[in-house]
Each structure stands twice: as C-alpha cells, then as structure tokens.
From TrEMBL:
Family matches, as InterPro entries: AAA+_ATPase, ABC_transporter-like_ATP-bd, ABC_transporter-like_CS, ABC_transpr_LolD-like, P-loop_NTPase
Occurrences of domain ABC transporter (ranges): 5-234
Record key words, sorted: ATP-binding, Nucleotide-binding
SUPFAM superfamilies found in the cross-reference section: P-loop containing nucleoside triphosphate hydrolases
Any single Gene Ontology cellular-component annotation: plasma membrane
Name of the molecule in the record: ABC transporter related
Example GO molecular function: ATP hydrolysis activity
Source species, domain of life: Archaea
C-alpha cells in the first residue's frame, strides 16, 4: 500500500527471549503513531525494527509496497539514509554543538554553505545557538535531547523514530518540542513513530496510540481516549 510502513507479525529474540511477539501495524504518512506500555514491553525494540536499525527475526516489513527485509546492502543503506532515530539517551559527537548538526549534513552530501545555514537554522529553532561553540558533551541531559532532535529534523528524514523525546525536558521545552514534532510531521508528510510514557504527550501527538505489553499490541486508541483508560496500562 503506497504511503504506508506496514509491519506484519514482527518477531524479535534478544538473549534467547522473545521480546516482540507477532506485532502488526501500519504507519501512514503525515500521521503520528505513539507506542505506550510498561517498561520491558518491547517498545524500543519494535521502534528500532521499524527503522531497520535492528533486523526482525520473523515477519514482514514494507514501506510503500517495498519489502524492506529483502533489500540488498546498497538498498538497506539507502533506506537508512531516510531514517532519523533519536534514542531516549541521545548520543552526541565528540565535537562542538554546531558541528553535531553540520557534520551529519555534510555526510549526507550538502555543500558547506547549505550545511552551515541549516545547522544555524536548527540551533536557533531549539534555542541552542548560544551553546554553538561548546563541547556537546558539556550539555545537560535536556540540552542533549534538544540537540539530538534538531540534528534529526535537520536531516529531513522520511521516517522519524523518537524514543521518549521529552523525558529530560522541563514542561515548557517539552510542550515546545511536542508542537514542533507535530507540525514537522504534518507539513513534511513523513512517517513518525514515538515511544512515550507520558499520557498527555501521547494524546497531544498521536493520531493512533498503541499499547504494548509483554511484546504484543494489546490495545489501540485514538487521541480522544480518556487518560484513565491509558494510565491503566502503564
């Protein structure tokens, strides 16, 4: 089906334990799918599989009708260039804050002038321009989260995967990032999957909320689901 990432019966074993058990879902363009559930339910493992960052041990994974699991190495690398993944504990380069955005842009083929302009644009977008020449390793956890998201959005991904994207942020910055992500996905027509424990964040972001428990999707909700209904799963 065009415009859809389709997963059918995805399975993953880690350390001999089945952590994802036959999960099926569709992720449409311009819509945000939020995955919720208790710790250890397989949410992050599923998120990584959807971006081919972790190979499934069984099932089907397609994007726009193309079987992603049958891609050759060149095709896989091409798909990964379309994916931006922001983990719960963001990784930063051993470089200053500015270069943490500019270097990945140069590696994607942008000329120096365009990469420079885009890096400054996104630093300003997340209010980190004042830290541009600091080592990225000197940033707080919340500032690293802002930097990682800015770097991901600057890459203009076709698939955006976010693992607890506001977990280290204060309420004001969390609300700002939630609005930014929602607008970005809508305006650019990309695929987006978010793992979150925050019920209000899930209801604000999501077009669909999936509840994952013990490696399976146990429930599906719209954004109008009562908070009390969602809280009972967490």
């Amino acid at each position: 089906m065009p415009g859809v990432i389709r997963a059918v019966d995805l399975v993953k074993y880690l350390g001999g334990i089945q952590v994802v058990r036959g999960v099926s879902l569709d992720v449409e363009r311009s819509r945000i799918t939020v995955i919720m559930g208790p710790n250890g339910s397989g949410k992050t493992t599923l998120l990584r599989m959807l971006g081919l960052l972790l190979p499934p041990d069984g099932g089907l994974l397609e994007m726009d009708g193309v079987n992603l699991l049958s891609l050759d190495e060149e095709g896989r690398r091409g798909f990964l260039r379309r994916v931006a993944f922001v983990p719960q504990k963001p990784v930063v380069l051993t470089a200053n804050v500015y270069r943490n955005i500019a270097i990945p842009l140069r590696l994607r083929g942008l000329d120096p002038r365009t990469a420079d302009a885009e890096a400054w644009r996104w630093l300003k977008e997340v209010n980190l321009e004042k830290h541009a020449w600091k080592s990225a390793h000197s940033l707080s956890g919340g500032e690293r989260q802002l930097l990682a998201l800015a770097r991901a959005l600057a890459l203009s991904p076709d698939v955006l995967l976010l693992d607890e994207p506001t977990s280290h942020l204060d309420p004001k910055n969390a609300a700002f990032i939630q609005r930014l992500v929602k607008e970005y996905v809508s305006e650019r027509g990309i695929h987006c999957v978010v793992v979150s424990h925050n019920v209000r964040e899930a209801k604000f972001l999501a077009d669909e909320i999936l509840v994952m428990v013990s490696g399976r999707i146990k429930a599906r909700y719209g954004p109008d689901a009562p908070e009390s209904e969602l809280l009972k799963w967490i």
